[in-house]
Amino acid sequence: MQRYDRLREILRLDPDKDFLAIYRLTATYEFPWDFARALELALFRTYAVPSIGGLLAETGEFTDRTQKRYDDTALLLDAIVEHGFEHGTARTAIRRVNQMHRSYDISNEDMRYVLCTFVVIPARWLDAYGWRPLTHHERRASATYYATLGGHLGITDVPGSFEEFESTLDAYEEERFGWDEGARKVADSTLDLMASWYPAPLAPAVRGVGLALLDEPLLDAFRLTRPRPRVRRLVQGALRLRGRAVRLLPPRKAPHYGRQNPEIKSYPGGYDVGELGTFPVPGRGGCPVPHPRRPAGAEAQPPA
């Protein structure tokens, strides 16, 4: 197989009917590392909306148990990509996400914005740093994939095209980005988590790399120190060089799913999708209806 053969395979598929197959090929064969980084950035952006970042701070989950919340979010989304919407494991993942969301007062507009980040930010990341940009075909399939996911999550007024996802995201950020003390704590905890994946002496440099990838509206919303222009150029230049190097490599022969990422650290012995996420206790700010826990080992996923 040659470098662009899989892209040719993608282009032979129908983005309206085969959107899951296209998205899976794009995310797990063509750009698994880039999608992981882009989705991290996408979630980070959502904290800059005070109603989102403030709520995450109130729960304490993204400040006190940052690694587990990172892992659970990645694994729940990954289960849907890997298995498809109709598979039992994916349906369990969707049910878990819905149970968690319904435990809190989250507006449809905020949920729709989060969905928009999942569509738009990976495309923008690949435009800047990928070994190739996403094609219109792939953008259309991605928009349909997340519109479908939005329907399963009960989100209404979901955009109908990539361009509508993009315009919705830009308008929402312009209107809603702002300062929130709790959201800043969530942002700092997330940057600290990413630094913790590397040897301790590298932590300041890793944090600096993270800041260099944030745009001005995001830095302003969190009141984060702006990186020096030279540092920003160095980081972005290194990512572009990586993209050019990857272009010269042979294509991936097997899919790489999120559960295989080394950043996932909470479940070295495997995990049960039905046990991922939070289970709010009745009377403590969560859902008043107790949700039954699953038997140990049900739908267990092997360790990466």
Give short descriptive properties of this protein:
304 residues; 14 helices; 62% helix; globular
How are the elements arranged and paired?
Blueprint: H1 5-12, H2 19-30, H3 32-46, H4 50-59, H5 61-64, H6 66-83, H7 88-101, H8 108-129, H9 136-152, H10 162-176, H11 181-196, H12 203-212, H13 216-222, H14 229-247, E1 271-272, E2 300-301
Antiparallel strand pairs: 1-2
Structure description:
By secondary structure, the protein is mainly α. It has one domain (16-301). It is 62% helix and 1% strand. It is built from 14 helices and two strands; from the N terminus they run ααααααααααααααββ. α4 (50-59) crosses α11 and α8 runs antiparallel to α9 (136-152). The protein is globular and about 50 Å long.
Going by helix content, strand content and strand pairing, the class is mainly alpha
The description of the largest β-sheet is: 2 strands, antiparallel
Q: Give the number of domains.
A: 1
| Relative helix content | 55-70%
